[in-house]
Amino acid sequence: MRLKRYCLWLMITLSLSCQSQEVKNKKGDDSFSIRNSEWIEVEKKGDDFQPLSSEWIRKIVVTENEIQLDLMESSLYKIENIEDLENGVKISIHNVDWYYKVTWIDYKKKISKWDYTYNGNIERSFSYYAIIKNNLQLIEKYE
């Protein structure tokens, strides 16, 4: 009788383990980390995005411990913390009162909204859409 219970318990455990692994595999690339990535500003046109044709394209480079912001000129900051949010991340900068809240617009294409946030308020003039540099070819350039 004990052997039957043990076999039943083992089958259930293995079955649940396989189901759990299947769910993880369906999520696919949830393991993406914003660290060690480069982002290029894109323009939103209706529901679509396109590369900018301006010479003032903003760029962000995130390393393990630093974030480089190329707005009009390049600035390098030490990252204090990167916190996972429900639909993005919060990048806190060392010794400053502002941070970037990065919200996924299209997770598969890695298009996101970068909101510069100071004292809890979003500063629109420093906020913009960006795509990870490696995926720039995934959006169409309009003529």
Class derived from helix and strand content? alpha+beta
CATH topology of the largest domain: Lipocalin
Strand percent estimate: 35-45%
- Please identify the top-level CATH class of the largest domain: Mainly Beta
Spatial strand order of the main sheet: 1-3-4-5-6-7-8-10
Q: Please give the share of residues in helix.
A: 10-25%
Taking pLDDT < 50 over at least 5 consecutive residues as the criterion, the unreliable ranges are 6-28
Q: How do the helices and strands line up, and which of them pair or pack?
A:
Layout: H1 2-27, E1 37-45, E2 48-51, E3 59-62, E4 66-70, E5 74-85, E6 88-93, E7 98-106, E8 111-118, E9 121-122, E10 128-132
Antiparallel strand pairs: 1-2, 1-3, 1-10, 3-4, 4-5, 5-6, 6-7, 7-8, 8-9, 8-10
Structure overview:
This protein has an eight-stranded antiparallel β-barrel. The radius of gyration is 21 Å and the shape is globular. It has one helix at residues 2-27; strands spanning 37-45, 48-51, 59-62, 66-70, 74-85, 88-93, 98-106, 111-118, 121-122, 128-132. The longest helix is centred in the first third of the chain and has 26 residues, at 2-27. It has two domains: 1-29; 31-138, Lipocalin. It is of the alpha+beta class. Mean pLDDT is 80; it is low at 6-28.
Summed up:
Helix content is 18%, strand content 45%. The chain is an alpha+beta fold and 143 residues long.
Please name the defining characteristics of this protein.
143 residues, Lipocalin, eight-stranded antiparallel barrel, 10 strands, 45% strand
